[in-house]
Design goal:
476 residues; globular
Length: 476
């Protein structure tokens, strides 16, 4: 996947270079001023000084996320430096997060997708999608997002998105849909958001679901089976996918007259080649590892990276190709930096402070108010914290609140798994955002612009679906 090349490109145009430099300095100055203003304000009562410094740094970084005076990987690297320079964390603690297992999981998924492209599987999948979803780009986007979102519930949202994205990107290029165009932004973002929304559907759709269910067992002894989670959450996922797709359509207004080339759907693709069969066998082995994780205990990251190593050892891809095509900086700096910032939000006490101030507002107001309150808080915190960490932070606070109010603690457990699917405001919010960003079709401000509409749309539709469906099946 090729990333967008940010910044000044006309190397021979000296006035343009100077103008771009001044613009960069201006945005940097604005970011530092915003952070300095937060630092100058009195610290909120109950928040430690280190937490106050963290909020000041976070304010500066958010301004830079929107303005991008330098490429996003460098902004996230600067975030790590800021954590150290402000005494928020030690270098060991800060930089270790940049090599978190989730980072390697995203990296492994990108490698697997590049191998699939190399052997021709993504071309085959792209033709299959066009044949069944049609050539009209907008109609294709809706149908493929429904398929992708549903698949994300059963094969992990990152895996589903990575495979789907690598099949669709060549179609976009052949149709002349360029990076930065409204249609290009819409198609790629819709795939990412739909994958995240669909991931809430079953326990294996995302790590947040399994962590929330595991914490419920640890705190109360109550278990949620794979079947139960699917019954509770899958209907909401199936209505959330078109909701976030529709919200993005309203924001970006893709060109409804654009079509993919008819040749993308024509003719027989023939039988699978030997390389394709070997690649599919390794991918199937990885997914088998996903579903049997409770037996072997290996992390997802180990499985996908080992799969990439095996594919290279089998001669299905050359290391030079894999090294050139894999977005190393996006994986390590962008997502690793997001994890580091999220961990800092936890150990500085900022996340706990926000949870402690927010959740009591919904105490004693019934199950739906608590469900919605926990969900909204989780969806906001997970913009910077890993959704797994968000679940781990909120569950010990929310479960006692629910129990004392006589509310089934399964309600808050489902809220954490479902609403953390809507991390749509920042690239670092969840792995699907990072994978989609590496394609180079949108900038961080585009994601935020779409997420401001798609996030509340997803939350409202999910809440309404849960209210109606759970009342019907007797969960509440």
């Amino acid at each position: 996947m090729a990333s967008i090349r940010r910044g000044w490109k006309a190397k021979g145009d000296e006035p343009a270079r100077i103008q771009h430099t001044y613009r960069q300095i201006g945005w940097f100055g604005l970011a530092l001023a915003a952070g300095g203003l937060v630092w100058a304000l009195p610290a909120p009562e109950g928040l430690r000084a280190v937490g106050h410094r963290y909020l000041a740094l976070l304010t500066s970084l958010v301004v830079m996320f929107v303005t991008e005076p330098v490429p996003l990987p460098l902004i996230m690297a600067a975030g790590g430096c800021g954590l150290a320079l402000l005494g928020i964390g030690t270098p060991e603690r800060i930089w270790t997060a940049y090599a978190h297992p989730v980072v390697f999981f995203v990296l492994g998924c990108l490698m697997m997708a590049n191998v699939a492209e190399r052997v021709g599987l993504t071309r085959r999948l792209g033709r299959l999608l066009v044949r069944h979803c049609g050539t009209n780009v907008v109609k294709f986007s809706f149908a493929s997002c429904m398929v992708l979102g549903t698949a994300a519930a059963f094969m992990h949202d990152v895996s589903a998105l990575t495979i789907g994205l690598m099949a669709v990107l060549p179609l976009l290029r052949r149709a002349g849909i360029s990076p930065g165009s409204p249609t290009g932004i819409f198609v790629v973002l819709a795939m990412a958001f739909s994958s995240s929304a669909g991931g809430m559907g079953t326990l294996v759709g995302g790590g947040r679901n399994m962590v929330a269910a595991g914490l419920l067992r640890d705190l109360t002894g109550e278990r949620i089976s794979f079947f139960q989670w699917a019954v509770y959450a899958m209907p909401a996922a199936l209505v959330a996918i078109p909701a976030v797709w529709g919200a993005l359509y309203l924001v970006f207004r893709p060109d409804p007259t654009l079509h993919f080339s008819p040749t993308d759907a024509e003719g027989k693709t023939g039988g699978l080649t030997a390389d394709e069969k070997r690649t599919l066998a390794v991918i199937a082995l990885i997914f088998l590892g996903f579903f049997t994780r409770g037996w072997h205990g290996q992390d997802y990251s180990v499985l996908v990276v080992a799969g990439a190593v095996l594919l290279t050892a089998l001669g299905l891809v050359e290391w030079d190709f894999l090294n050139e095509r894999t977005e190393w900086a996006v994986s390590f700096l962008v997502f690793g930096g997001g994890i580091s910032l999220g961990q800092a939000m936890h150990y500085t006490g900022v996340a706990e402070y926000l949870a402690g101030a927010f959740l009591p507002l919904f105490e004693g107001r019934g199950w739906f108010a608590l469900f919605l309150g926990v969900g909204i808080l989780a969806s906001l915190l997970t913009q910077l914290m890993a959704n797994v960490a968000t679940a781990a932070l909120i569950m010990p606070i929310a479960v006692p609140v629910a129990t004392m109010a006589g509310i089934n603690p399964v309600i808050v457990t489902m809220a954490l798994g479902m609403f953390t699917s809507f991390a749509y405001l920042l690239v670092v919010g969840c792995p699907p955002n990072v994978v989609a960003y590496s394609a180079g079709y949108f900038r961080t401000r585009d994601l935020m612009r779409g997420g401001i509409v798609a996030q509340p749309a997803g939350i409202l539709v999910t809440a309404a679906a849960a209210y109606l469906w759970w009342s019907l099946i007797g969960l509440v």
